[in-house]
Fold this protein.
Amino acid sequence: MFISLAHAAPAAEQPDPFLSFLPLIVIFVVFYFLIIRPQMKRAKEQRKMQEGLQKGDEVITSGGQLGRVVDIKEQYVTLEVAKGVQNIFQRAAIQTVLPKGTMKDL
């Protein structure tokens, strides 16, 4: 008589599976538009610039050397960094193509 009757609690509702994944989906979309997409665009522009190299272009390498393109092969580029001094670089090391006449100004 002193013990009250135990009543079962109503069953808890299951959360919607879509709502539980919604934060992950939102984070992925934000990462895509703020990080992944701009990086892919820059990589595509870099590849296009490296494929469009021509003899006589003035370039800066990723190491910071300034030179004029004197020979282009499939994977390598020969740069003249000073009169009579030529160095061979990988195409991927070319970072920027400068406007013509930049080397004369330096």
Q: What stands out?
A: The mean pLDDT is 89. The helical segments are 17-51, 102-105. The chain has two domains: 17-51, 54-106.
